[in-house]
Design brief:
Keywords: Carbohydrate metabolism, Cellulose degradation, Glycosidase, Hydrolase, Polysaccharide degradation. Pfam families: Glyco_hydro_1. Its EC number is 3.2.1.21. Belongs to the glycosyl hydrolase 1 family. This protein has about 450 residues and is an alpha/beta fold. Helices cover about 35% and strands about 15% of the residues. It is built from 14 helices and 13 strands. The protein starts with 13 loop residues before the first strand and ends in a 6-residue tail after the last helix. The protein binds ligand GBH. Ligand GBH binds next to loops.
């Protein structure tokens, strides 16, 4: 257990937790919701580790009041959720389904009544299946469709959402969804998936314009980043590190911040058309940073289809996902962003940070997760150090409020501050929930409850 007093953060620093629609909502056939690529994928044999689906997940669709009460008890100032596109437009196009909007309308009102700022992500990977059937993010049309959907959500929620996030982790969606096939829609195009990067970014830029027309903002995107640790000291190792950095950290940031695509990535003028880069570089108010761990990179073996080889970084404890617990990587990453983009870097919020452990109730019914407390303590101190380094960090969101449906890992990985018994849907706050509640109170200069 950490014993040092919690670091202090600037007044107005945003304290939040994050979730996403398909991972928690369930109720996949209710109130006119359409099918998404994740429904299709999860229901295809062999795609998900435990054969589970998000059909019920945490049943949040029916239990959102209880979940908002958990947020209020935690004392967070913000809650990042995602809007399920197939609830709003079951076929991905056309007029809004009012019942779909009603759900988020109620959620937003409940959050505001609880003193929690709603932070809405428009797209956390759940593309309406009919749009995938028309080419998915390989099709340029999908970018236009996304902006039309953004407009419908903004028209209904624009007066109350406190931060808009267009896309979640477009790199992961491209690489795992369309590159390697580990995620929906399960395509295996490797580098032929690059148009998915461009069309997501174009969709982001068009959605920013739609949000600006309807709302006062602020507007962000949530990218995942990983500081690159070059393993080995040959020129080939360093070149591999640079290639991975361009692909993972710069492909979705250089064009957003006005630099165009990194060399050797996207150049085809039939994909990247005149004017697109200006649309993509529309100013954003916040850069959302999802951070999990650093990545070890070395030169690829002869004949590899990739220009790098990934390897675990050693010397850190590991989570149940086997990811290294490396808070120093967060400080390093924030310094890299500031050093690379300088004054073009907007204020940053850490929109996801978290860890999976094999948490389960003990004989006393409580769930003790000291590893998660150590994880959060370390990462908060890393954010404090980055502030001292001069990086403008405005918020920190823990992934996640609840144990939930972890994509290709199904229910086998528990990221929550709150334990969920999926048989009964009972929510049990873990010891990390109490620790974070007290830490937030202390850093906000309020007495611990
Ligand atoms: C996020 O993605 C998602 O936004 C969220 O929905 C998800 O539930 C959450 O994180 C937890 O997974 O093998 O050591 O190199 C995270 C993206 C990509 C981060 C893979 C870690 C590999 C670590 N992740 N990456 S390692």
């Amino acid at each position: 257990m950490p014993t040092a007093p919690p670091p202090q953060f600037p007044a107005g620093f945003r304290w939040g937790v994050s979730t996403s629609a398909y991972q928690i909502e369930g109720a996949v056939a209710e109130d006119g919701r359409g099918t998404s690529i994740w429904d299709t994928f999860a229901h295809s044999p062999g795609r998900v580790a435990d054969g589970s689906t998000g059909d019920v997940a945490c049943d949040h669709y029916h239990r959102h009041r209880e979940d908002v009460a958990l947020l209020a008890g935690l004392g967070v100032t913000a809650y990042r959720f995602s809007v399920a596109w197939p609830r709003i437009q079951p076929a991905g196009t056309g007029p809004a389904n009012p019942a779909g909007l009603d759900f988020y309308d109620r959620l937003v009102d409940d959050l505001l009544a609880a003193g929690v700022d709603p932070v809405a992500t428009l797209y956390h990977w759940d593309l309406p299946q009919p749009l995938e059937d028309a080419g998915g993010w390989l099709a340029r049309d999908t970018a236009e469709r996304f902006a039309a959907y953004a407009d419908l959500v903004a028209a209904r929620l624009g007066d109350r959402v406190k931060l808009w996030i267009t896309l979640n982790e477009p790199f992961v969606h491209m690489s795992l969804g369309y590159g390697t096939g580990e995620h929906a829609p399960g395509r295996t195009l490797l580098f032929d998936a690059f148009p998915v990067a461009h069309h997501q970014l174009l969709g982001h830029g068009l959605a920013v314009a739609a949000l600006r027309a309807r709302t006062a903002g602020p507007v962000a995107i949530a990218n995942n980043y990983s500081p690159v640790r070059v393993l080995g000291d040959t020129d080939a190792d360093r070149a591999a590190g640079a290639a991975y950095e361009a692909l993972h950290n710069r492909l979705f940031t250089d064009p957003l911040l006005g630099r165009g695509y990194p060399d050797g990535t996207l150049a085809d003028p039939s994909v990247v058309r005149d004017g697109d880069l200006a649309t993509i570089a529309a100013p954003i108010d916040v850069l959302g940073v999802n951070y999990y761990n650093p990545t070890g990179v070395r030169a690829p073996a002869e004949g590899s289809p990739l220009p790098f080889e990934l390897a675990p970084v050693e010397g850190y404890p590991r989570t149940a996902f086997d990811w290294p617990v490396a808070p120093d990587g967060l400080r390093e990453l924030l310094g890299w962003l500031r050093g690379t983009y300088g004054d073009a870097l907007p204020p940053v919020e850490i929109t996801e940070s978290g860890c999976a452990y094999d948490d389960r109730p003990g004989p006393d019914g409580r769930v003790h997760d000291p590893e998660r407390i150590a994880y959060l303590d370390g990462h908060l101190r890393a954010v404090r150090a980055a502030l001292d380094d001069g990086v403008d960090v405005r918020g920190y969101f823990v992934w996640s409020l609840l144990d939930n449906w972890e994509w290709a890992e199904g229910f086998t990985k528990r990221f929550g501050l709150v334990h969920v018994d999926y048989a009964t849907q009972a929510r049990t706050p873990k010891s990390s929930y109490a620790w974070l509640r007290d830490t937030i109170a202390a850093t906000r200069g309020e007495p611990a409850r």
